[in-house]
Amino acid sequence: MDKLLLAVKLIITALVLILFVQNIAVVEVRFLTWSLSLPLALLLVVIYLLGMVSGRSLMGLVRRLGRRGEGHEKRP
């Protein structure tokens, strides 16, 4: 089982490396009045990390609100 997991990790790593190598072209990103030029691969990493952070924060908020709601229901 460990060998299978290692093989899957290696395949995913290879696919990510191929993605980065094929997307090194510089793109311009504009947001409101800001403008930034950076490689597409770096932009993909930044967007992925921002999505991870915001998703984790949102799930934490949902869990906290869920616990708070459960506490109010149990009171007489």
TrEMBL record:
Pfam families: LapA_dom. InterPro entries: LapA_dom (IPR010445). GO terms for cellular component: plasma membrane. The chain crosses the membrane at residues 7-25, 31-53. The keyword Transmembrane helix applies. Coiled coil: none annotated. Residues 22-66 form the Lipopolysaccharide assembly protein A domain. Keywords: Cell membrane, Membrane, Transmembrane, Transmembrane helix. This is Putative integral membrane protein. It comes from Halomonas campaniensis. The lineage of its organism: Bacteria, Pseudomonadati, Pseudomonadota, Gammaproteobacteria, Oceanospirillales.
